[in-house]
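Fold this sequence, please.
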Amino acid sequence: EFSKQTDEKLKLERERQDLENEKKLRAKDEQIAQMQRAIEDAKRKGEQGSMQIQGEIQEDALKELLNHNFPIDSITDVEKGIKWADIIQEVRNDFGQSVGVIAWESKNTKAWSDGWVEKLKEDRLRVGAGVSVIVSSVLPEGITRFGLYRDIWVTDYESVLPLTIALRAHMIEMTKVRNSLKWKDEKMEVLYNYLISPEFKAKIENIVEAFQTMKDDLD
């Protein structure tokens, strides 16, 4: 009887001890899980911070590249927190006249997002940009190096300079064409009114009479 009671007590003690151990193990597992979540959260925040820093570095490099190669243009940053593009480039011709604006957006991520395109379309309206460009380390499907994607130019960093040269040349040439056609209708109206005016008629008659007199003299 004594042996039985002793065995029963030992059994109960083992069960109690096993339960305590199980509680401790569960508590440790929960602590480990919390630590893993904290580590993953810290890692994610660190990666986001790193990507943000890399993005800012790429944006600064882009601005420096534009300033160095196009010193006559006005190139300005957009303040953080303002819903505009990253960089605004006011293109100027050789006479220092503004011929248009390029809105630049710089991205340095692992995946492409079409949301950037919609945002930049809105931003370019705010700044009055005729041309918009996204510089990204990852381009949309079907675009190699650079190209026009949904009415927005996209390019990798290596192709920024040749693309900018081409866009600036096009903008300057288009401005020349627009200026040549400016006041075209008004000029044509002035010319037409002069051609049917008595003054023009009188001048033509005087010229004709002068030639007729010279011809008569020669005859």
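DSSP finds five helices and six strands in the chain. Residues 2-69 form the longest helix (68 residues).
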